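Build the 3D complex.
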Amino acid sequence: MTGLHVGIDIGGTKVLAGEVTAEGRVLRTARRRTPGRLADPRLLDDAVTEALQEVAGERAVASVGLSVAGLVDLSRGRVRFSTHLPWQEDDTAARLSARWGVPVLLDNDVSCAAVAELAYGQGLTHPDFLLVTVGTGIGGAIVHQGQLWRGANGMAGEFGHIRVVPDGRPCECGLRGCLEEYASGNAVVRLAGDAYEDGQAVTAAAAAGDPMAIQAITSVGDWFGIGLAGLVGSFDPAVVVVGGGVADAGELLLGPTRIALERSLVGSGHRDLPQVVVAACGPAAGMIGAAYLARSG
Amino acid sequence: MTGLHVGIDIGGTKVLAGEVTAEGRVLRTARRRTPGRLADPRLLDDAVTEALQEVAGERAVASVGLSVAGLVDLSRGRVRFSTHLPWQEDDTAARLSARWGVPVLLDNDVSCAAVAELAYGQGLTHPDFLLVTVGTGIGGAIVHQGQLWRGANGMAGEFGHIRVVPDGRPCECGLRGCLEEYASGNAVVRLAGDAYEDGQAVTAAAAAGDPMAIQAITSVGDWFGIGLAGLVGSFDPAVVVVGGGVADAGELLLGPTRIALERSLVGSGHRDLPQVVVAACGPAAGMIGAAYLARSG
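Done.
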């Protein structure tokens, strides 16, 4: 099929569309704000359509992949549950496919990021890994023998909502004490005293030596390592790939993470610890993976 | 190879050996006490040898499978770490193979139980499941597309040592707040007021209507459901198979487990909950699976 292959990442705050080549390079992008969860779903349709049009211009579009922050029903191309998006239990992919006249694929954002890592990143050397994204919240995906493990509902990898504190902090998902309340971009911002807009701003301040920002990222790294210890005990992966905006902190985050992981892992000292590495595809991973999936049909 | 195929389950309190047929039936068993962790490892060799001799009598033995409560190095046939056994980081399988003059295979007890379920139990209808055993402690195994997922170190499935309470109860593994401190046979006995010898005794009392025993099993079911919620969020399995001695409580345990699982699972109400079913192979599952693996070479 001739024409562009476009990936669109739809997160809690922004819609990011991009033309993606077969080699996984992003050629041109456009961005819109995401309407809130209680908005009319058609407002999100419009935002995504505008971003697509800006990327395509006069050129034909061959396929569109949507990378979505939420639990997804892959077979029906719809969002089943999302803490941030107005698309809920509707016919999103079919509706947009009819509107645009092109095939549309909709998948979970972390699954898309894992596909991008598989095709263009850490998967080139590691056929088995856990991907854990530390962004606004925590996302996860499981890659086994070069394949994404999707689970019975296509919802595997929801590592952010493992309960780590009984009667702990309330989470946007409706539960309490979820890991992502203690080890995410939101937690970094809270721990840094709410003086920063998002986790990436704290990361930048920490890199510049700000002690409170460093302390916030250290605490999040500690909690993240405790969470990883449960996952490593469960899956025993050779490699843990860490993505998402807070992963930009690099060793500021991963140093404390590795210490807490080793301290908190059952049988530590009698087993090989997994490598903990940063994702190769960066913040565009969801978009790249969605375009790859849509292109692959 | 002619001769018996024998499975030997080596738990924290007893050694249980049995002749196992190709159809998974147990024909003859023998039992010995397990020497404690600080005993000379050769005392455990002797106990296992006596149990084997009692099962075999004058008959030739073709293979022996050892099902062991601990982290196992499968390729070298040795226990890497066990909270209960004197075999630690030695050449167990090679040593016993030389002593007995037969092939000896050594594997983790819950992996063996999963193999038994795959060959003779729930695996006949479910190619994908999590096995969680609730015995003295908690064990786990992951079955994907009819295969055991062993992980990079052969240590996948250590669900019992996921931390569920920060600074919680000390665990025999050296960590604190592990799931198995709140949702195991040991926890059942503690919650029932230490008036019972083991989890199975509490289970029997609960089945007979003892209110304190019922309360203890209900509490353990609640914690077990909370732990399962994290695993179901991570793996999204279609089926969770529950084995181990406490599973004999049946619905007394699984009723509260299902309620807590549904309450604690991310996206509940927007996904299918997994079936939670009792293991088919019963308390001999480890022995049966070990014999199956040894027979299969």
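The radius of gyration of chain A is 19 Å.
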